[in-house]
Specification:
- The protein is an alpha/beta fold.
- It has two domains: 8-231, Spore Coat Polysaccharide Biosynthesis Protein SpsA, Chain A (Alpha-Beta Complex); 240-300, no CATH class.
- It is built from eleven helices and eleven strands.
- It has helices at 18-31, 50-57, 72-80, 102-111, 140-147, 150-153, 188-194, 206-216, 243-262, 267-284, 289-300; strands at 8-14, 37-43, 62-65, 87-91, 95-97, 115-123, 134-135, 174-175, 178-179, 183-187, 220-231.
- α7 crosses α8 (206-216) and α10 runs antiparallel to α11.
- The longest helix is centred in the C-terminal third of the chain and has 20 residues, at 243-262.
- 43% of the residues are buried.
Amino acid sequence: MDTQNPILSVVIVNWNGREPLRLCLQSLHRHENTAHMEIIVSDNGSTDGSVAMLKEKFPAVRVIENGENLGFGAGNNRAIAVARGEYVLMLNPDMEFTEPGLEKLIAFMAARPTAGLIGCYIENPDGSFMRQCRRGYPDPITAFYKVSGLIRLFPRHPHIAKYFYGGQPTDAVLPVDAVSGSFMLARREALKKSGNFCEEYFMYVEDVDLCQKIRAAGYEVLYAPLMRIRHHGGRCVAKMPRRSAFYHYHMTRSHLILYRKDGSLSPLVYWTIVLRYILASLITGNRHLNAHLREFFAIRGGKVTEAMRRL
């Protein structure tokens, strides 16, 4: 692989995802022309032999060994810092390429200088459309429509279903608030101007935050279904003990950070989120509830402490 002057840098953050990562890279090589591409894996302290597998099976891949789980955003930033491509594809290790398409996406961006970051058509393992691949900004009202189930009752309503852009065609280019962090193709220049990922987040919502910053830098964020890719979803997170507690903690923490940053963390919004978290914690048997509540209170006051990485 000639990576002296790569057009595209493929960045993958990995944490104990050896087999999904191997299959992802195999499918990438099977369907895409990698001649002008560099691949960088930012490994967040895997203990499952991921690094050894990469060195044996994919010696051309550049591996950054972070030594510990830095989180999704920070792991990406370590790789973006050394990426040399004009474009950077941030890709989850549980993605499977099923057809060629990266050249079409890059050509689309080259012809549209205002496009700073795009996502593509993402399939679920059964081949159905993954609604999360394009999302409206999850402000408190939009998020309420989703968690309350109203979005299921009105799946095509322009406001109630905006979280997933319900009612919008899946086969047309669409300006969106955010795309899924599992597949984000960006101009390196746009990433530089936006400041890359915010590392206050550990997991979840950092993709929304990045899209917001790229749009604030003057670029478009677009859903561009010029290629399809399959997402096998959560294969690394599924290895976490007490997965549901892990999910609820980081999703709650990340939304509190997002709302603090955008100014929408009113007392009503804060206590609604916290009370919902308390109920979820009682269901999942969260042993760290008191520590989490103290952390959430600190976030409300503007102090973001380091996230708990194990539950």
